[in-house]
């Protein structure tokens, strides 16, 4: 079996990301090898549990591990304090100990929620990520950002809590709806756009193959994305500086998600695609980035069917978007922090952006 293993180097909290088709079937042996006892609680997205829960149960049973599964409803609305409170009640109701291991089975929603539950239950349980969307395999399962949304904004309640292991079985993506695969692909493009122009070139040639289900292209893209994320997180776990590069497109994107109510109207990856274009627009407007690089990004996102500007059939307001942006966790002394670019693959972090060009980028993007 093809397996790629990437190590996230965080001293005593270092862990492996195992990538490849069939990794789920190895979950029992790999979890047993962690030496955390013979009992796990799986927290699963109900849709994913129906599709892949039996295979995980069988893998765990083969290694003599007892499993109890708790499901949560699919969708971004599940990343809430209400669902978290109910989930914690159910976890505690199972009579857990500090040694009990949680396993998150699903996309970024379940990974963020279950990871946060693991961070706070009994003041901290160990957990394993089994990501089942492209987005979760390339991004959310790695790096330890866990949490839920608040009425005040996206991911405003949470904790840094690293998993013990990430098992990214790329074969599970076969059941993922095309729109979800595409949305996850936006975070893959993000890695090329922020720090690897060669990877961006590769994606221009291979992205369509990946989206058509090509296994080799998928493994390669997941591997490169995880390598980049592991390197950045290994240097700056708590986003004191360079980790903010992984937020390219997110200050704008999270504002769009907040305005659309965190529903099916705009998926996180779709918001990131639009947000990246806005970050490039702002960089061009400030004279930092050639317009040709912005155009290249837009052409590639267009070519794979990702949105590049907010849906014009809705009504948007610059002030409302700016209001959401002020809730961003990167705000320092009242100033917004942006991830800007000098070109494809050359992102940097700054909090020295005047207000006018930001408002102008928003106004242009939402103009009818
Ligand atoms: N923690 C981080 O570093 C980080 C990084 C990026 C995104 N995120 C968060 O991740 C979330 C988005 O994650 P997502 O895009 O994975 O969405 P998601 O978890 O909502 O999953 C998308 C949909 O796909 C379904 N699904 C999942 N796996 C499937 C499979 N293999 N087959 C069929 N259906 C499947 C789910 O039921 C759901 O309906 C957002 O909340 C975002 O903020 C977090
Ligand atoms: O891991 C990170 O760091 C990221 O910023 C990855 C992002 O893709 C992800 O959406 C993350 O959840 C955003 O974090 P936030 O701190 O802006 O809420
Ligand atoms: Zn993201």
TrEMBL record:
Catalytic activity reported: 7-phospho-2-dehydro-3-deoxy-D-arabino-heptonate = 3-dehydroquinate + phosphate
Positions of NAD(+) binding = 108-112, 132-133, 145, 154
- Give the molecular function GO annotations: 3-dehydroquinate synthase activity
Write down the EC number: 4.2.3.4
Cofactor: record remark: Binds 1 divalent metal cation per subunit. Can use either Co(2+) or Zn(2+).
**What InterPro entries does the record point to?**
Dehydroquinate_synthase, DHQ_synth_AroB, DHQ_synth_fam, DHQS/DOIS_N, DHQS_C
The pathway that the record names for this protein is: Metabolic intermediate biosynthesis; chorismate biosynthesis; chorismate from D-erythrose 4-phosphate and phosphoenolpyruvate: step 2/7
Where the record annotates domain 3-dehydroquinate synthase C-terminal, the positions are: 184-331
Q: What does this protein do?
A: Catalyzes the conversion of 3-deoxy-D-arabino-heptulosonate 7-phosphate (DAHP) to dehydroquinate (DHQ).
Task: Tell me yes or no: is Zinc among this UniProt entry's keywords.
Answer: yes
Chief place where the protein resides: cytoplasm
What are the binding positions for Zn(2+) in this chain? 187, 250, 268
HAMAP family attached to this UniProt entry: DHQ_synthase (MF_00110)
Q: SUPFAM superfamilies given for it?
A: Dehydroquinate synthase-like
Its name, as the record gives it, is 3-dehydroquinate synthase
């Amino acid at each position: 079996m093809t397996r790629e293993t990437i190590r996230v180097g965080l001293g005593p909290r270092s862990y492996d990301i195992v990538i490849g088709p069939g990794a789920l079937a190895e979950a029992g042996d790999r979890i047993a090898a962690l030496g955390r006892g013979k009992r796990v609680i799986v927290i699963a997205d109900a849709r994913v549990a129906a599709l892949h829960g039996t295979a995980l149960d069988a893998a765990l049973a083969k290694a003599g591990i007892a499993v109890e599964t708790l499901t949560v409803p699919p969708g971004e609305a599940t990343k809430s304090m209400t669902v978290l409170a109910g989930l914690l009640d159910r976890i505690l109701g199972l009579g857990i100990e500090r040694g009990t291991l949680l396993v998150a089975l699903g996309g970024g929603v379940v990974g963020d929620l279950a990871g946060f539950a693991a961070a706070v239950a009994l003041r901290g349980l160990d957990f394993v990520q089994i990501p089942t969307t492209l987005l979760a395999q390339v991004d959310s399962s790695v790096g330890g950002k866990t949490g839920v949304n608040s009425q005040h904004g996206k991911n405003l309640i949470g904790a840094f809590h690293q998993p013990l292991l990430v098992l990214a079985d790329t074969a599970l993506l076969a059941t993922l709806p095309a729109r979800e695969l595409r949305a996850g692909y936006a975070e893959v493009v993000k890695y090329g756009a922020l720090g690897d122009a060669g990877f961006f070139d590769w994606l221009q040639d291979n992205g369509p193959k990946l989206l058509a289900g090509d296994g080799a292209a998928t493994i390669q893209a997941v591997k490169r994305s995880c390598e980049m994320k592991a390197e950045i997180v290994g240097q700056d776990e708590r986003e004191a500086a360079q980790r903010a590069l992984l937020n390219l497109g997110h200050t704008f994107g999270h504002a769009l998600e907040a305005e659309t109510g965190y529903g099916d109207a705009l998926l996180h990856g779709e918001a990131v695609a639009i947000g990246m274009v806005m970050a490039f627009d702002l960089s061009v407007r400030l004279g930092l980035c050639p317009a040709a690089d912005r155009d290249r990004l837009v052409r590639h996102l267009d070519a794979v069917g990702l949105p590049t500007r907010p849906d014009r059939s809705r009504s948007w307001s610059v002030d409302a978007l700016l209001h959401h942006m002020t809730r961003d966790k990167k705000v320092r002394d009242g100033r917004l922090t942006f991830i800007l670019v000098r070109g494809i693959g050359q992102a940097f972090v700054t909090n020295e952006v005047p207000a006018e060009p930001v408002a102008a980028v928003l106004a242009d993007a939402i103009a009818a």
